[in-house]
Design brief:
306 residues; alpha/beta; 14 helices
Length: 306
């Protein structure tokens, strides 16, 4: 498999990488401009014993390695199959992907980059640029992981909701679906609201309403300074009034935007199926996928890219 061959079939290219050809080229141009400086820093790190330029050169060019990374993230195939497709040994596939990931993260709009911007917003117009309609939508999602061997880990990662061992990540998106904040992964047993209490976006502008689901009951009492909107919860032996039902329907129509964004993330196989890699790499993978989703959304709405 190569870029020259795959780019002749745009539909296959999008299915294999999650990006249009023009989007791929735009990110690759940024990667290419930063590549030499990135390699110089990587090869001149203090723990490296060999000199700059020593060692075996990469078999694939930067464009092909970036393509391989995207195909791996999108399809989540094994390193063995990736090696067969790109004519590499499976150990080299892992090594090439791991070496390129830090550079890719520099070239796409990661949630933490956007979050730093939102912390510097001062005027109403600036706030409205990042929070259209002055709304933010917060929700957590789970992903299955292999059953831990350690008994304590098995208990702490077990999700009673999914009946599986999982990790959780919380996202905050705006009304365009843009991911403005993302937490590190948490153990599957942890409740959504516990994650919010410990790792919530600390500087959401005061004008912005935070829209939650019923998993965040209690946020209005614990965070009185935060504008919070929740649906009504049905009480025991009573029915919701017509007004409360209308509110809940309207609330669901608004909040579906965060579900759509999570769906975009999970279209990448590395985030949508059982996570087979070491958990130490989980946040790197979720950062890159979130950045790719943000890149596509920002390009669509005509927002300035980082």
């Amino acid at each position: 498999m190569s870029y020259a061959r795959l780019s002749k079939k745009p539909l296959l290219f999008r299915s294999f990488t999650g990006l249009e050809i023009s989007e791929f080229n735009e990110i690759y141009t940024e990667i290419e401009s930063r590549y030499n400086e990135h390699e110089r820093k990587r090869l001149s790190r203090t723990k490296r014993e060999r000199g700059i330029g020593a060692g075996r050169p990469f078999k694939l060019k930067v464009r092909e390695r970036f393509l391989m990374l995207l195909v791996y993230y999108r399809l989540y195939i094994t390193y063995t199959l990736s090696g067969f497709l790109f004519d590499l040994d499976q150990s080299n596939v892992c090594r090439d992907i791991c070496m390129l990931e830090p550079l890719v993260k520099l070239c796409i709009p990661l949630p933490k980059k956007l979050y730093k911007r939102t912390r510097r917003l001062r005027t109403i117009d600036e706030v409205e640029e990042y929070f259209p309609s002055f709304k933010a939508f917060i929700d957590a999602t789970e992903q299955e992981i292999p059953r831990p061997k350690n008994k304590r880990k098995r208990k702490s990662y077990y999700s009673g909701k999914k009946k599986k061992h999982t990790v959780k990540t919380q996202y905050m998106v705006n009304s365009e679906g843009l991911i403005l904040h993302k937490t590190e992964h948490k153990k599957g047993r942890k409740h959504d609201y516990d994650i919010f209490k410990n790792k919530h976006p600390t500087t959401t502008p005061l004008q912005v309403e935070n829209v939650f689901d019923l998993g965040y009951m209690g946020v209005q009492n614990d965070f009185p300074t935060v504008k919070s909107v929740l649906p009504f919860r049905k009480k025991r032996k009573s029915e919701l009034s017509d007004g409360e039902k209308r509110h809940n329907r309207k609330h669901s129509k608004l909040r579906v935007i965060v579900e759509h964004t999570v769906s975009r993330i999970k279209k990448f196989g590395i985030m949508g199926t059982k996570f087979r890699n070491k958990l130490g790499r989980y946040d790197h993978a979720s950062d890159i996928v979130s950045g790719l989703v943000n890149f596509r959304i920002m390009r669509t709405i005509g927002m300035m890219l980082l």
